[in-house]
Specification:
13 strands, six-stranded mixed sheet, Metallo-beta-lactamase, Chain A, binds zinc ion, 241 residues, 7 helices
């Protein structure tokens, strides 16, 4: 039901919807190429992101070259960044030290990922210097919000999960007990962990409590291996401020 494409920094998930494929977190340019190889000539109806960060959205322009009819959607919370009304928020210094630097070497292909980030569209860069340079060079909508259906994806619902960024969302499929968690929950540890690289620890903890109320057996994180067929998989997730 869910296919996964690796190779573009963040994991890309493909779900077959009513009107064609839905691409969640297209990743970087390489992921766009790999996604197009996987999907081939079948239609892509929707491309959307769990949040407005380059490793999740840098390949959208490239993917649109393959599927020009696809609609691009971000969460409602991403509107200020996508429209350049606001600069992308940056986690505090400590969060880079405890949350990001330790995991970079543990992600697969760190050098290739870095190169892919450099050659992808400079959109959604959470760095002090570059975050002003966000430019979205394609039509998009910022309409994904809690309580709203995802067009063409029946049975999936949006859960707003601020914390990693204010605009972060997860999507949940009740029948299969599946959660695509974006960068709210990662899996570098092997059992999943709440992302310490976040703009607000208070918010991400609160978001996790909200997710924990759902029965989840299949966890599809933004980085790290998927955890599938594990009853109450969120109960194992590590939480370390
Ligand atoms: Zn992110």
């Amino acid at each position: 039901m869910i296919e996964r494409v690796d190779g573009g920094y963040a994991a890309t998930y493909l779900i077959h919807g009513k009107n064609g494929w839905v691409v969640v977190d297209p990743g970087t340019r390489l992921a766009a190429d790999l996604t197009a190889t996987r999907i081939g000539k079948a239609p892509v109806s929707l491309i959307f992101a769990t949040h407005f960060h380059i490793d999740h959205i840098g390949g959208i322009e490239r993917l649109l070259a393959y599927y020009p009819d696809a609609v691009v959607m971000f969460s409602a919370g991403a509107m200020p960044y996508a429209s350049k009304r606001k600069r992308i928020p940056v986690p505090r210094f400590r969060r880079w030290i405890v949350g990001l630097i330790p995991i970079i070497p543990r992600l697969s292909h760190p050098l290739r990922n870095l190169y892919q980030g450099v050659i992808s569209a400079k959109t959604g860069m959470p760095f002090f210097v570059f975050r002003k340079a966000s430019k979205v060079g394609y039509p998009f909508q910022c309409r994904l919000q809690e309580g709203q259906d995802i067009h063409g994806l029946e049975g999936w619902r949006i859960i707003e999960t601020p914390g990693h960024t204010p605009d972060s969302i997860c999507i949940y499929h009740q029948d299969s007990r599946s959660l695509i968690s974006g960068d709210t929950i990662l899996n570098i540890s092997g059992c999943g962990e709440l992302n310490r690289f976040c703009c607000s620890w208070t918010d991400i903890e609160k978001s996790f409590r909200k997710l924990s109320a759902l029965p989840v057996e299949n966890l599809y994180p933004g980085h790290g291996a998927s955890l599938c067929g594990i009853q109450d998989v969120l109960a194992r997730v590590q939480i370390r401020p």
